[in-house]
Amino acid sequence: MADKELTKEQRILRVLRKVLANIVKDATPAPGTPQLLSEGTRTDIRDLFGLIAEREAELAEEAGLNRNEKPYFTDEPQQTNVVKIHRPGPKKIN
Hints:
The protein is mainly α. It is built from two helices and no strands. The chain has a domain at 3-62. Helix 1 (8-27) runs antiparallel to helix 2 (39-62).
């Protein structure tokens, strides 16, 4: 779905999720160094990601979108094949 097709709330949630993820990446210490964020703050961040995901799912359901779709390459083999069924026309009576 293109950004211009999203509602204002969907755009806000998308940006909020991206900004929060960038903050977490920037605040994550190198292995072996002490954590910068307290355990409570990390729990709050996990909860916030969960709330964002829940609301995005609700909005997608209201819009009738399928949340199980995954991106794929156009040259990737498809899992399903479409079979066209041709029905013969009516019988001609002589």
